[in-house]
Amino acid sequence: KQEVTQIPAALSVPEGENLVLNCSFTDSAIYNLQWFRQDPGKGLTSLLLIQSSQREQTSGRLNASLDKSSGRSTLYIAASQPGDSATYLCAVNTGNQFYFGTGTSLTVIP
Amino acid sequence: EPEVTQTPSHQVTQMGQEVILRCVPISNHLYFYWYRQILGQKVEFLVSFYNNEISEKSEIFDDQFSVERPDGSNFTLKIRSTKLEDSAMYFCASRGVGTYGYTFGSGTRLTVV
């Protein structure tokens, strides 16, 4: 069974810092990997989708990388802002379902 | 941008009662999903639905759960006799043919008392 782990569980940084969130998964047989943002008590907002054949995807200040063979993905956030404060979830798609990590709770301090 | 719409946003129900959670997927999507997130835990897969039938379901999706697409727009999750442990946020998601990313709704928070 696919297991997805995210570290750190929580992160607090001053505004303007660049930061990296990590995601690891146990089974490299994946179709794609998606990063989501979740605000407290809210739904899941898709940030980036990386296909299994891709190495990275970029959207604005966000960059996600994928190393399928080692079972790792990172989400890089440049020049963090207080509005980036949220929980970031990594999810791997093995075919007909996503397996989610427990998330990294990010706080950006003004 | 197209959205997946879920109603209600919050539902409180008595243990043993039936509840129906409603979702309106994106109009041209054909793959539909339900996930749930118990407070403080991971988002978990419940069921996937395509071509008017269940294509995959998890161990959580037992006989108390059912899904239906009663018309061309709605996709529902029914819990026949709710238990305290069914309290969670339930997310609906949809995906289009030939696309790979899921679009999630904003969720229904179900509280069983």
Which helices and strands, and how do they pair?
The complex is a heterodimer of chains A (110) and B (113).
Chain A: E1 4-7, E2 10-14, E3 19-25, E4 32-38, E5 44-51, E6 56-59, E7 62-67, E8 72-77, E9 86-93, E10 98-100, E11 104-109
Parallel strand pairs in A: 2-11
Antiparallel strand pairs in A: 1-3, 3-8, 4-5, 4-9, 6-7, 7-8, 9-10, 9-11
Chain B: E1 5-7, E2 10-13, E3 19-24, E4 31-37, E5 43-50, E6 53-57, E7 65-68, E8 75-79, E9 88-95, E10 103-104, E11 108-112
Describe this structure in words.
With 110 residues, chain A is mostly beta strands. Chain A has no helices and eleven strands. The mean pLDDT of chain A is 95. By secondary structure, chain B is mostly beta strands. In chain B, strands 2, 4, 5, 6, 9, 10 and 11 form a seven-stranded mixed beta sheet that branches. In chain B, strands 1-3-8-7 form a four-stranded antiparallel beta sheet, with no helix packed on it. In chain B, 35% of the residues are buried. The interface between A and B is medium-sized, with 23 and 23 residues.
Which bin fits the share of residues in helices of chain A?
Answer: under 10%
Helices and strands of chain B, in order, run as EEEEEEEEEEE
Q: Beta fraction of the residues of chain A?
A: over 45%
Beta-strand percent range of chain B: over 45%
> Mean pLDDT of chain B, rounded to whole units?
93
If helices are DSSP runs of H or I spanning 4 or more residues, what is the number of helices of chain B?
0
Q: How many whole angstroms does the radius of gyration of chain A measure?
A: 13 Å
Report how far the terminal alpha carbons of chain B are from each other: 36 Å
Structure annotation, total helices of chain A = 0
General shape of chain B: globular
Shape of chain A: globular
Parts with pLDDT < 50 across at least 5 consecutive residues of chain A: none
